[in-house]
């Protein structure tokens, strides 16, 4: 896979070493068990796969090269490059201005932007309407489009489904930038509906089977379906694509449910005429991160720490999985570990930051699961690890721990 030129301060000395050693041992990535780093009084269980993915590194490289190659030019980003506050703050310090927030509210109005300015499209992509707006303004977009290729793969698959007269079911959060973009690209060639989760899909299945009245569709999915949607006609043939940061297992669960629904309605002999297999659109990084998280669940850790942006969808799903077994603390950097007693962390259920005391148990060795989301630099994870280590005496040196891992 391509190596990207990203800022040195995002790279790490600890995590990068572990990742490289695991890659040498398991180049085909068949082993998703965690890596144990034994520092004596504290042990860390490191996920097999986490951190910056291909799409994120590609976007960061393009952004920094754009700044370097265009001195004196005004450079804008449509919205957050990725869902990580540290990375976005770094881009602002480089002189990049943000046009909108993640909800689409403007910081900078369109009339303030000229054809001489540069506008970067973030890794999530953008809507066709905004692409057309930029082109009409005379702003080139191809050179400064950082859309993840795996997101574009989803768009292409949606277009293909439309060619075959399938309705596209999009598994995603309807207000997320990527899902808004995917919906925009999908509706140009196909009827489309957004479902948030398996629960909403169960409701959709009951509408398809006539268990719930068709009128319920327009109320329940208000704002989430394409124009002139006809429930009776447009739910006869379906295929599923997803917001790439959603849980891959839930996307598959949604697809399996809709396939069973079509079998119940039309019979197994004609299923290919009513359901399209779209497993090939699932993002490799989302799949690998999820598999690695299941590997972490096999440990007997005392707690888990997940590092990432609080509005990061893929990171919140990692938290969701880990908190099924461990007390889990979702932080965006090492500064949130206030002391050996206190940690400030994000509760993604209530959408608020809270402070918890005595988060580290008194028993030794303390066993900690440590991982991050796909938009988090490995250096941030290093900082968290070192912050925790600073609370303990007589820890083994990093060199000693790495050496024992290499044996």
Automatic annotation (TrEMBL):
Record-level Gene Ontology MF annotations: 4 iron, 4 sulfur cluster binding; 4-hydroxy-3-methylbut-2-enyl diphosphate reductase activity; metal ion binding
EC class (word): oxidoreductase
Alphabetically ordered keywords of this record: 4Fe-4S, Iron, Iron-sulfur, Metal-binding, Oxidoreductase
Pathway: Isoprenoid biosynthesis; dimethylallyl diphosphate biosynthesis; dimethylallyl diphosphate from (2E)-4-hydroxy-3-methylbutenyl diphosphate: step 1/1; Isoprenoid biosynthesis; isopentenyl diphosphate biosynthesis via DXP pathway; isopentenyl diphosphate from 1-deoxy-D-xylulose 5-phosphate: step 6/6
Gene3D superfamilies assigned to the protein according to its UniProt record, in alphabetical order: 3.40.50.11270, 4-hydroxy-3-methylbut-2-enyl diphosphate reductase, catalytic domain
Obligatory cofactor(s): [4Fe-4S] cluster
InterPro entries for this protein: LytB/IspH (IPR003451)
One annotated GO biological process: isopentenyl diphosphate biosynthetic process, methylerythritol 4-phosphate pathway
Enzyme Commission number(s) from the entry: 1.17.1.2
Name used for this protein in its record: 4-hydroxy-3-methylbut-2-enyl diphosphate reductase
Organism: hydrocarbon metagenome
